[in-house]
Amino acid sequence: MLDYAGKIAKAKKYAQERERFRFTQFSVTFSGDNNPHTINFDNGVFHCDCEFFLMHRWCCHTRALEMVLEKMLPETAPA
User: Residue ranges per domain, the chain?
Assistant: First the structure.
């Protein structure tokens, strides 16, 4: 017999241990105050389609994601 309760408990434990997760690539639509933005992450490098990012290689959208995904992204040098 399968132990579903045990698997759910283990999943909850894992979900609290953020350091277990390492994102290598993803794409996110960020609902900004003025417009939606597409943010891509690939092998430690962010890219956002907003104007500020194009000029500065970082923006509030990518920084917000870094905060949300704390401990789940590979270590990179600050921009």
Answer: 22-79
